[in-house]
């Protein structure tokens, strides 16, 4: 185990203020406790939430802040009570690294909804020190919040599944939508949206991508596997598609009207919100009442669901569409991500970067 007299350090790329610009930052990480695994970070996916947090757009950031919550790494050291992992295992860490373990969500495998959950970064751990994310050389994480990457899965491919993948898998499973023959809509074709198409198709659904422009039509239909492509500004096509979908996964991370999409849902259809939006959303209640429709939300997934989605994708040969970059490209990647200029997820090659 680590020498308790010597503080362990690592280097990550941190935002220092709400400009959100990242630069190298060396900081201490805790020694490996009995339930902890010490992980050398190999790859880390880049999520919209990382840019929101770096710029304090959600109002909860603490600086210096090292983002990154789609972390894939190798176990370098395991605590004395760790039973799930061995040195050399390739593992994943998502958006949550702690919870109270006593509340109803914690006791029902819904720990991501614990009111005392601890975020992977921009939070304070039980030892009183700030949590820092996966844009870093190493992390120490409680084994409960670590998952094993299935053998044979390419590590950089696994990274986006730890947030984007489980974010769409969880509501489909929870709301009983993981059955064959449904008609689903994916609103927004980004990192989460492209995984939504792939996972829904693998569950046997007829999938319509709903987008604001023509520019991703060919990719959606020919490369990602959607069945239909609907442009939200085309009033005629939107009218033709009314009352046709069992659910819509809404991945748009900025304010937008809900009524056009609610009209696409069948009786008892569900609009499932996934974008972290800090402005109010509006709709007219009759649009919901006259179809007994539901507006709901879902937040990443549980540790159990994270393990499931990795296995689901491995068994069905599902891959993520990624662009691998080095850490010194991260500020450019953030700029491109905010312009939706990525197909469809940036993944940082952390181990291959000079931090």
Automatic annotation (TrEMBL):
InterPro entries attached to this UniProt entry: ADH-like_C, ADH-like_N, ADH_Zn_CS, CAD-like, ER, GroES-like_sf, NAD(P)-bd_dom_sf
* All copies of domain Enoyl reductase (ER), residue ranges: 20-348
Indicate yes or no for the key word Zinc.
yes
Tell me, what is one Gene Ontology molecular-function annotation carried by this entry? Answer: zinc ion binding
SMART domains assigned to the protein according to its UniProt record, in alphabetical order: PKS_ER
Positions the record marks as coiled coil are none
PROSITE patterns, A to Z:
ADH_ZINC
- One example of a Gene Ontology biological process annotation: lignin biosynthetic process
- The superkingdom listed in its UniProt entry is Eukaryota
Write out the similarity annotation. Answer: Belongs to the zinc-containing alcohol dehydrogenase family.
Q: What is this protein called in UniProt?
A: Cinnamyl alcohol dehydrogenase 4
Q: Which organism is it from?
A: Eriobotrya japonica
């Amino acid at each position: 185990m680590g020498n308790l007299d010597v503080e362990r350090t690592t280097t990550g790329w941190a935002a220092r203020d709400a400009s959100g610009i990242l630069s190298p930052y060396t900081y201490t990480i805790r020694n490996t406790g009995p339930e902890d695994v010490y992980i050398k970070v190999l790859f880390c996916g880049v999520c919209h939430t990382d840019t929101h947090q770096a710029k304090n757009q959600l109002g909860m950031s603490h600086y210096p802040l090292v983002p990154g919550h789609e972390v894939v790494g190798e176990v370098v050291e395991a605590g004395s009570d760790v039973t799930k992992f061995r040195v050399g295992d390739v593992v994943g860490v998502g958006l949550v690294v702690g919870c109270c373990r006593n509340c109803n969500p914690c006791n029902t495998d819904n720990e991501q909804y614990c009111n005392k959950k601890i975020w992977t970064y921009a939070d304070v751990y039980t030892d009183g020190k700030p949590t820092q994310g996966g844009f870093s050389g190493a992390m120490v994480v409680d084994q409960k919040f670590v998952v094993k990457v299935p053998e044979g899965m390419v590590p950089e491919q696994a990274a986006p599944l730890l947030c984007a993948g489980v974010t769409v898998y969880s509501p489909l499973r929870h709301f009983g939508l993981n059955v064959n023959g449904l008609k689903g809509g994916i609103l927004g074709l980004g990192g989460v949206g492209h995984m939504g198409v792939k996972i829904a198709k693998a569950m046997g659904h007829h999938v319509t991508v709903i987008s604001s422009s023509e520019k991703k039509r060919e990719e959606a239909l020919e490369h990602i596997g959607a069945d239909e492509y609907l442009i939200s500004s085309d009033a005629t096509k939107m009218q033709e598609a009314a009352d046709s979908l069992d659910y819509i996964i809404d991945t748009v991370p900025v304010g937008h009207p809900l009524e056009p999409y609610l009209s696409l849902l069948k009786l008892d259809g569900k609009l499932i919100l996934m974008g972290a939006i800090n402005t109010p959303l509006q709709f007219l209640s009759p649009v919901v009442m006259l179809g007994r429709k539901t507006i709901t939300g879902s937040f990443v997934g549980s540790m159990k669901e994270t393990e499931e989605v990795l296995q689901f994708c491995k068994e069905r040969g599902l891959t993520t569409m990624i662009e691998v970059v080095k850490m010194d490209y991260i500020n450019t990647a953030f700029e491109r991500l905010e312009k939706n200029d990525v197909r469809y997820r940036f993944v940082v090659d952390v181990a291959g970067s000079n931090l």
